[in-house]
Amino acid sequence: MAWVELAYSKSQVKRAGKVLGASVRHPLTIDEQTVRDAELVLENWRSAHAFALNSVQMTLRRQVERAQLTADVSQRLKERRTIIDKLLREPTMQLSTMQDIAGCRAVVPDLAAASADCTTRACESSRSSRSTTTSTCPDPPGSGPTT
User: What angle do CA 25, 27, 30 make, to 5 degrees?
Assistant: First the structure.
């Protein structure tokens, strides 16, 4: 599978978002070709996030495996219609700066165990990278006194 590269500048992506929002709010004010061009920019913008999304998803799967956790890892690109809906719902939102075009998550059956494992690994990693043994990492959940 060949990964899609971004074919437009950020200003073109920003402009496409404005056109698509305006085409829904005021459909008679924008010609069809301009809307089609904006849709092509939007589709390229979405698709250009697939490589980074896949990289994050593979990294997350490796982390889950290393931690010996059971988890359902999933990823998604935001649908075209959902992107346009968000642009309409949040008038100051710009397509070029929308933060959730792509998403990845791991669903674990036991959050406390996963949290404790991740906290422990993060602290071990940060301790090994420092010359001092003092740690600012919190104790894993369930390891301290209860109140």
Answer: 110
Q: Please give the Cα distance from 133 to 128 (Å, whole number).
A: 9
Strand, helix or coil for residue 144: coil
Strands 102-107 and 72-77, how do they pair? antiparallel
Can you give the residue ranges of every domain in the chain?
10-128
Which helix (H) or strand (E) covers residue 17, if one does?
helix 10-25
Supply the angle between the helices 10-25 and 32-47 in degrees, to the nearest 10: 130
pLDDT digit string (tens) for 54-97? 999 999 999 999 988 889 999 999 999 999 999 999 989 999 99
Full-model pTM? 0.72
